[in-house]
Amino acid sequence: MPEEAGFPPAKRFRPGCGPPGGRVVMLLTAGGGGCGGRRQQSAQAQPAASPYPEAVERQRRSLPIFPARGQLLAQLRNLDSAVLIGETGSGKTTQLPQYLYEGGIGRQGVIAVTQPRRVAAISLATRVSDEKRTELGKLVGYTVRFDDVTSEDTRIKFLTDGMLLREAISDSLLRKYSCVVLDEAHERTVHTDVLFGVVKAAQKRRKELGKLPLKVIVMSATMDVDLFSQYFNGAPVLYLEGRQHPIQVFYTKEPQQDYLHAALVSVFQIHQEAPASQDILVFLTGQEEIEAMSKTCRDIAKHLPDGCPSMLILPLYASLPYAQQLRVFQGAPKGCRKVIISTNIAETSITIAGIKYVVDTGMVKAKKYNPDSGLEVLAVQRVSKTQAWQRTGRAGREDSGICYRLYTEDEFEKFEKMTVPEIQRCNLASVLLQLLAMRVPDVLTFDFMSKPSPDHIRAALAQLDLLGALEHKDDQLSLTPVGRKMAAFPLEPRFAKTILLSPKFHCTEEILTIVSLLSVDSVLYNPPSRRDEVQAVRKKFVSSEGDHITLLNIYRTFRSLGGNKDWCRDNFVNSKNMTLVAEVRAQLRDICLKMSMPMVSSRGDVESVRRCLAHSLFMSAAELQPDGSYVTTDTRQPVAIHPSSVLFHCRPACVVYTELLHTSKCYMRGLCVVDADWLYEAAPDYFRRKLRAARD
DNA sequence: GAGCACTGC
């Protein structure tokens, strides 16, 4: 046990174990109420396909959910809505859809199972179609962006929650579905949260119209499901035990001033005491921290006493190139310990086998949104209790585990109970555009499970209004024809508007490229250790007109060379993201063609591209002040050019930006040099109002 | 003058 951090004796617990509150039906399971299930295998860790049907069947029958099958189906058959708590490894996600189908619920319509992430939707569909011994895309299929593997025969369909939401735009009653299972509901992504409201409304409306009832099942891995139950008219809560292994939790005796130092000490204490085969997972907040800690660990590991096992230090964060991310899944050489130093990506998105120890700093970098200023603040903050438990649970996936919390138990008690749902801390413009496209009667009173504040909603409506998407008629809010077209694009409303404006400036081809580049993770790869090299190589693409034009140059060169991977490596371009850009671009171009938009190119004329950006991003502009600083044109907020911008060392008189980010300062990211006159031309009324407001 | 948690359509 690390002594310097001062850990008192451990507390034993099972994540998710304990009596659930509220109206709960305990379902009969094999584990039978005690802690520490009898079986050692885990549902998700099983190999996907088995050539032997009996083996597949035996495996299915061995899952904790199996003994509850009859009871579960009997309950669900009679319910409109239900909440199902299933612990990790209970088998709920793979088995429940099959039970529903076998119970005849898929006979009159498709069973939809939503997932927050693409990879989960794809791998679950693959797994379940294997279990049913059918070809993927027949009985069992999946739909995610760019990839629809379903057919007329499909009865069980896994899809991302965002995808079901998009389907709801063309059919808000979700007519093709007999049942919607909302999985991972505890994560409370914006898409899941909007879907709660959409399925609830569809369920009610279908009942009123005497149509096929819509069954809604909300699945959560955590206990705090009262909100779900209340929201769905007091839906019963069904509780299913899982196969999580016991985990010992240690808190520090004293609060830690320096969580990085405490993490470092803990890692090496564990390293000196535990067998080399037991891996460690450390949660930190961001790339810079993780790289620095990795380097320090490697340096220290070189000077360890004889007899101490060696250490394989693996950083893990989303912007790390894919090949390097994959290294965390490979086993360490014999006699060597894996130490994975990760962001919260390892909390939910990436599951690593063989983790025995979790070191939780209790910190996370997360975005907050201020609707008044439209400002996103990215700040290091405390995790919530549910997040801390999620991290702890990562230690007990295959066997019992140990979690060191680098904070005191008193501190933990003061953590927020739950992470604030994303819908209350993001820009709502996209969400409201989608709801309006579904012809929701009144977005201001829409039945959100956790309501965003009225100011928050009004700010988003104001933004949509500026983009020309809204129509007010007899106190009713609806979409203009432009607004309706905007909703067809899988983009932020302002970028959809940029595309719709582009024919006027004869630069649709260029704008499609730029918008695609903006809507995926950066194609620029910036390894901190090779900064000078990166700068030298990138020079040939840099445009004095800003980041958008620079990106356009990079994409053009990439295409002219036929999408060459070697070129990407040599030019510090992330080839995976670049390939994705091409896919996004093709999808957006398709949507344009369906709208009969003319496909025009401005050829070499980048001024028209900049004019187009000025006309759609006029509300995100900043002007140079006499003292060399910048202020935004809308709220006179002092801002600075982000160091990642190609204009970082320049002083253009007027720019539009694609993002404001508050870290140590308020930074503009993604800049384009524009003419102040263009902005005024784009929205004369808006700027006249601003001028008047400034005078008063 | 110096920096970017994580998804998704």
From TrEMBL:
Cytoplasm is among the record's keywords: yes
UniProt GO molecular function: ATP binding; DNA-binding transcription factor binding; double-stranded RNA binding; hydrolase activity; mRNA binding; rDNA binding; ribosomal large subunit binding; RNA helicase activity
Single GO biological process annotation from the record: positive regulation of MAPK cascade
Domain Helicase C-terminal: start-end pairs: 269-439
EC number: 3.6.4.13
Chief location: other
Subcellular location: Inflammasome; Nucleus, Nucleolus
Pfam families cross-referenced by the UniProt entry: DEAD (PF00270), HA2_C (PF21010), Helicase_C (PF00271), OB_NTP_bind (PF07717), WHD_HA2 (PF04408)
Enzymatic class: hydrolase
Gene3D superfamilies in alphabetical order: 1.20.120.1080, P-loop containing nucleotide triphosphate hydrolases
Coiled coil start-end: none
Region spans: Disordered: 35-54
Domain Helicase ATP-binding positions: 73-241
Family annotation (InterPro entries): DEAD-box_helicase_OB_fold (IPR011709), DEAD/DEAH_box_helicase_dom (IPR011545), DNA/RNA_helicase_DEAH_CS (IPR002464), HA2_WH (IPR048333), Helicase-assoc_dom (IPR007502), Helicase_ATP-bd (IPR014001), Helicase_C-like (IPR001650), P-loop_NTPase (IPR027417)
Keywords: ATP-binding, Cytoplasm, Helicase, Hydrolase, Inflammasome, Nucleotide-binding, Nucleus
Assigned protein family: Belongs to the DEAD box helicase family. DEAH subfamily.
Name of the protein described by the UniProt record: ATP-dependent RNA helicase DHX33
Gene source species: Ursus americanus (American black bear)
Gene field: DHX33
